[in-house]
Automatic annotation (TrEMBL):
It comes from the Bacteria. The keyword Zinc does not apply. It is found in: Secreted. This is Pectate trisaccharide-lyase. InterPro entries: Pec_lyase (IPR002022), Pectin_lyas_fold (IPR012334), Pectin_lyase_fold/virulence (IPR011050), PEL (IPR045032). GO terms for molecular function: pectate lyase activity. Keywords: Carbohydrate metabolism, Lyase, Polysaccharide degradation, Secreted, Signal. GO terms for cellular component: extracellular region. Residues 1-36 form the signal peptide. Residues 65-268 form the Pectate lyase domain. GO terms for biological process: polysaccharide catabolic process. Belongs to the polysaccharide lyase 1 family. The gene is pelA.
């Protein structure tokens, strides 16, 4: 494990710090994004402040930095703003009830402290997107669906209530994703990675996601459930009264479960799930309170990026005081 050379990741900072910085980020970031591609994975990266994990790779993730800031208050305005060409920072104000899934284009930051209900966001072949500081509740499909080879996505400091399907699902060859500092309360199918057992031809070599400092608060399953991705990094999350299971590694996935705090969670992690065959899982430096030991086996590919691991025993207090939209 390499340590992060500068600031710790304990609190993600807002993406837009000022117009001059945002403009400079765009000027520098445009070349990095243009040069990003499937090979090589590791190029010089430029990243939004506070970003850690897989979304820092492949040229980095800056979202809509450098673009105009647009405030939206209804579905039509939101859909128009997130589908425009070019970078943009979209501030969600108030509560917006969506009649269907809203597709998000590339080079966007969606933030602002507002609430999304009814449905959610779909990223399809989208690149360089940040969704940060929002509330999601009562969605009829997914709250956030990342699919079809979308890359460099950061989903950070959001709060999720209860909806129909996934809170955050990543699938169909998507890659270089960080999911951090989110609070998920009482939802069932929380975070799916890889949508089906027969999609290996698209997914193998992709689906690389980091899950860190999330609060799984009375959730049921898929925290996350993983297919094919290797390595998938699950670190410094707090699992509180998870009723079904925490992490499942299936279908040749490789998952590193590291430095998490499991409390009142009988099945913190295991291999295989339902009809899906087992992957591999390495667990280390986790903390357990009134919880099972978990199941692990096999080896996992090495983590390529710098990160600092908080002591597992401190994760409960760190995450409960820092996760969710109110703590951005």
């Amino acid at each position: 494990m390499r340590t992060e050379p500068t600031a710790r990741h304990r609190r993600s900072l807002p993406v837009l710090i000022g117009a001059s910085l945002a403009a400079a980020t765009l000027t520098l970031g445009a070349g990095a994004i243009a040069n990003a591609g499937p090979a090589p994975d590791r190029v010089e990266a430029l990243n939004a402040p506070g970003l850690v994990g897989w979304a820092t790779e492949n040229g980095g993730t800056t979202g809509g930095a450098g673009g105009p800031t647009v405030t939206v208050t209804d579905e039509a305005g939101l859909a128009d703003a997130v589908q425009q060409d070019g970078p943009a920072i979209v501030q969600v104000s108030g509560t917006i009830n969506l009649s269907g899934m809203v597709r998000v284009g590339s080079d966007k930051t969606i933030t602002g402290g507002g609430t999304i209900t009814g449905n959610g966001f779909t990223l399809r072949e989208s690149h360089n997107v940040i969704i940060q500081g929002l509330y999601f509740d009562d969605w009829d499909d997914d709250a956030i669906n990342v699919e079809t080879e979308s890359t460099n996505v950061w989903i950070d400091h959001n709060t999720f209530g209860v909806g129909y399907d996934g809170a955050v699902d990543v699938k169909r060859g998507s890659d270089f994703v960080t999911i951090s500092w989110n609070h998920v309360r009482g939802h069932n199918k929380t975070m799916l990675l890889g949508h089906s057992d027969d999609n290996g031809s698209q997914d193998i070599g992709h689906l690389r996601v980091s899950y860190h400092h999330n609060w799984f608060d009375g959730t049921e399953q898929r925290n996350p459930r993983v297919r094919f991705g290797n390595p998938v990094h699950v670190f410094n999350n707090y699992y509180a009264s998870v009723d079904g299971y925490g992490v499942a590694s299936t279908e040749d996935a490789g998952v590193l479960v590291e430095g998490n705090f499991f409390e009142d969670t009988d099945d913190p992690f295991h291999l295989g799930e339902g009809s899906s065959g087992p992957g591999t899982l390495v667990a280390r430096d986790n903390h357990f309170v009134n919880s099972g030991d978990g199941e692990q086996g096999g080896s996992v590919a090495s983590i390529p990026y710098a990160y600092t691991l908080d002591p597992a025993a401190d994760v409960k207090s760190i995450v409960t005081s820092g996760a969710g939209a109110a703590n951005l």
